[in-house]
């Protein structure tokens, strides 16, 4: 085993020291290598003399590649995003006698300002179609008042409008939804017309990130310091649900993960597993072909004792170390000590790769359907909007 891993250990040792130099640092091993105890201990031993600490996660090291692919997709860099919906907050409009929408509604006197106003308004902080660079924020001043007998905490509920009214001003014009999010801060107390009111002046700040819409409130305290309220992310500002599937073709084992992107919900990454005699977090990168080039077993099926016996009896070809066969000639000579693998004479290499990736894809879809719904209704909805990452 030591001689087999010597080339990998030496390369990692030299490369890490060249990159990090002599300073104290921490290196985290991930993937299949991290799951190998010998490799982990050997690299840890070699780097310990250079003040480099070597760590690995407690479990699921083999899923780093597929989970990382999806994380990278969810957090990918973009220059700007366009708001697909209109986001805003409830408000009270000052009465405008020249506005038909105001004339169609009943006005009342604002006890704080003494002006005529109309309740049930909607203030669009971020309108549909607005393009906002990822690193920039849109800012809107907001003034809020509330009687003292109510709670001493100010809660601003962010609302979402998905309709077609271009300049919606009142919530009864169309359906306005309330995502599962709110903005909270402490009120500032003031006195108006011999009655106590909590009067707050603050800015509503919105940002369109790579994968989520964030909104929070910001205000200055008595000393001029800037305070920021709770940041509220709204995941998946998408008009339709999408499925992201990542596939990792490994040398000995392969893996798959998926994430379901739903509007206003934080996505969770799910790992695909296979059940045979036990739960397999990763799938063996192994295939069996018969003499006619027909695929007879793939993945965890190749671990079954009956399959192994049939392969020996009927002369099936076992294809493994598939990833090494894809290496260019310039790199292949560096792996001269790697085990050799046999390829059926009537099968092309790309056909074998396609067979295995098809198997991994089917496993991912099966796992998704079993997790989301047994009838496959969700899969029928998203099957034409699947995003694949390799």
Give a short overview.
The protein has about 400 residues and is an alpha+beta fold. It has helices spanning about 1-20, 30-35, 35-50, 65-75, 100-105, 305-315, 320-325, 330, 350-370, 375-380; strands spanning about 25-30, 50-55, 80, 85-95, 110, 115-125, 130-135, 140-145, 155, 160, 175, 185, 190, 195-210, 210-220, 225-230, 230-235, 240-250, 255-260, 270, 275, 280, 285, 285-290, 295-300, 315-320, 385-390. Strands 8, 13, 14, 15, 16 and 17 form a six-stranded antiparallel sheet that branches. Strands 5-6-4-10-11 form a five-stranded antiparallel sheet, with no helix packed on it.
Summarize the structure in words.
This protein is α+β, with helices and mostly antiparallel strands and 390 residues long. The chain contains 10 helices and 27 strands. It has helices at 2-20, 31-34, 37-48, 64-74, 100-103, 305-314, 322-325, 329-332, 349-372, 377-382; strands spanning 25-29, 52-56, 80-82, 86-94, 108-109, 116-126, 131-133, 138-147, 153-156, 159-161, 176-177, 183-186, 189-192, 195-208, 212-220, 226-228, 232-235, 242-248, 253-261, 269-271, 274-275, 279-280, 283-284, 287-289, 295-298, 317-319, 386-389. The strands form 8 sheets. Strands 8, 13, 14, 15, 16 and 17 form a 6-stranded antiparallel beta sheet that branches. A 5-stranded antiparallel beta sheet has the order 5-6-4-10-11, with no helix packed on it. Strands 18, 19, 20, 23 and 27 form a 5-stranded mixed beta sheet that branches. The longest helix is centred in the C-terminal third of the chain and has 24 residues, at 349-372. The radius of gyration is 30 Å and the shape is elongated. The two termini are 30 Å apart. The model is unreliable at 180-194 (pLDDT under 50).
